[in-house]
Structure formats: C-alpha cells, structure tokens
C-alpha cells in the first residue's frame, strides 16, 4: 500500500476502498495491516510515513483509546513544562489537555505541517499501534514513547459510552459492541495486539518505551508522575520532592480537578458532520471497575478469557 501511495497515479482513496471494511460500532472501519481503523486514519498513516520528521527529543504519548490518554497528556505536559509555569496560573487551568498535546494522526485543523512548527522538545500523542508508526520513528531516531494501558473491560465500557455521546445517532447496543470488541473489531483494535506490541518494545528497549497501567497509576499517582519525569529526562530533584511538587502535579491533573474546570466542562473539542466531541466527553468517571455497572459478570469473564488466550505465551499479563 505504501508503494502505491507514493505513486501519484494511484489515489489513496482508491487504495483504501480496496481494504476489507465493516460497519463498526458507529461508523465504517477498514482493516489495514492487522488493525481496524477509520479510513481517515489510514490516510494519516500513509501521509505520516512520507512526511513525519521525528526529532531525537520528541516524547510520544501512546494508548488505545479510552485508556487514560487525557490524564497522561495532562501529567506529561505538567511535568515537562514545570519550570515555565506556576500552579496558580497554569495553562491546564485554561486549556483542555487534549489541546496541549496534539495527536500526530489528527493534528490541529488537520494540518500536518503544524507539527513542524512546534518547538522542541515536542510532546506528541497517538493512538496508532507501534507497527503503524512512521518508519522514521522506529528506525532509531532516539525519541521516547510512553504507553498507557488499561483493563480492556473498563476501556471497552468507556469507549462505548463515549461513542454514544459523540456520534449523536444511534450507535450499536452494548452487547453487539461487546461481541465486536471481543473479536478484536474496534477502532485501533484488536485491543490486545495494540498493548502487546508496545509491551514487547518496552521490554526490549526500556529506555525508549515506558509501559504504564492506568490502574497502577490511580493507586499511586505520585510514584508514577516521578517515574514519567525520570523517563522523559526531567527527573524531580530532591528540593522539588521536599517541596511536594510531584504531589501538586498529581492534584492539578487528577480527575476531580480537571473535570471541574470551566474549560473542560464546556465547549467543543471537535465537530464534523454528526460527530460532536464536547470537551467534557473526555471526563466520565475516572474509576477502576466501572465495567461492572454495564456488563454482566459472565461478559467480564468472557473478555478476560479471550484476552488471556490472546496474550498466551507472551509473558504479558495484566
Ligand atoms: P471512564 O470513561 O471510565 O470514566 P482517554 O483520555 O484515553 O480518552 O480515556 C478516557 C477515560 O479516562 C475516561 O474513563 C475518563 O473519565 C478517564 N479520565 C479522564 N481524565 C482523567 C484523570 N485526570 N484521571 C483519571 N482518569 C481520567
């Protein structure tokens, strides 16, 4: 497909139309190199392959959707910019975390050149699986990747609730969505392959890929904010630790604080056709185990079994 893409006679749209496709939870998605993606993101992958210029000091935050990206964006932004801003007048009090760290496959106003204009060190994000990263990133450019993973049951429920909210038309019922998710059929899915790729890379290259779990971060956020800071090359000094800076950062970025801010409670992040993403859509409950309020125990066991089976032999367990 990439060689086709570089051939001006071959339109990307034409190529995408030849990929296997299926009506997803709320829109059509296509299968590209083992992953189900919205056609727009296949186009982005192809564009990024040719145009993305990584910098050695880039920090790329990665995740399956609904695994805590917004929180990770806020924390990483607060950590990297902590010498510029004080807590009383912090940009996160006035700007949505999604806005301060752009997605490389969905840059601001869909303008891919925008990424080039950002000062170094850039803080970027993506939901793309590692195997679909631009080759320029994976071929030893030196940048660092922070991945956040979450219990698939909670990620699934969070995604279903989110999709129902943003698509503003009848999305599939929970049971149908669950069956699709369990088959690996969801945007950026299969969920487990996405996690596994990053996990393997974090084992092979621990100084390049940091693998985090949402649940562990929630149980000890200060420990993880310090871990993130050390990994991205801006560790907290003793004085900062004594002054409680990591704790302040956790307080600034916690669910209660962020979800109660005017900027995150009102307004829209994105609008296109029927799809309206309100700023508040990124904040729902922020809890571990909410799946139990939506799925039966049996569904939970079924998904656990499937994920266990898919991860068998990888030494990765949740
Ligand atoms: P729930 O729907 O389970 O509440 P993403 O940011 O990847 O889209 O993930 C969204 C999920 O993260 C939602 O989960 C959301 O409520 C939760 N979330 C958002 N901000 C958070 C924060 N500061 N701390 C913990 N969880 C947060």
Fold and architecture overview:
A hairpin with a 2-residue loop joins strand 8 and strand 9. Helices cover 45% and strands 13% of the residues. Mean pLDDT is 91; it is low at 1-6. A 4-stranded parallel β-sheet has the order 5-4-6-7, with helices on both faces. Strands 1-2-3 form a 3-stranded antiparallel β-sheet. A two-stranded antiparallel ribbon has the order 8-9. It has helices at 2-5, 12-17, 39-51, 69-80, 97-100, 114-117, 135-138, 152-167, 174-182, 191-204, 214-219, 221-231, 238-242, 245-253, 255-260, 262-265, 297-311, and strands at 21-23, 28-32, 35-37, 59-63, 123-126, 144-149, 209-213, 268-272, 275-278. The chain has 318 residues and is α/β, with parallel strands linked by helices. Helix 4 (69-80) packs antiparallel against helix 14 (245-253). Bound molecules: adenosine-3'-5'-diphosphate (A3P). Adenosine-3'-5'-diphosphate (A3P) binds at residues 63, 65-71, 154, 158, 161, 253-255, 258, 282-286, 290. GO terms for molecular function: sulfotransferase activity. It is an enzyme of class 2 (transferase). This is Sulfotransferase. Belongs to the sulfotransferase 1 family. Its EC number is 2.8.2.-.
Rg, please?
19 Å
Strand content: 5-15%
Question: What strand order characterises the main sheet?
Answer: 5-4-6-7
Q: Helix count?
A: 17
Helix content: 40-55%
Shape: globular
What is the string of helix and strand elements? HHEEEHEHHHEHEHHHEHHHHHHEEH
Q: What does the oligomeric state look like here?
A: single chain
Structural class comes to alpha/beta
Uncertain stretches: 1-6
Number of extended strands? 9
Distance between the termini: 34 Å
* Bound chemical compounds: adenosine-3'-5'-diphosphate
* Main sheet attributes: strand count, strand direction, barrel closure: 4 strands, parallel
Provide the residue-averaged pLDDT: 91
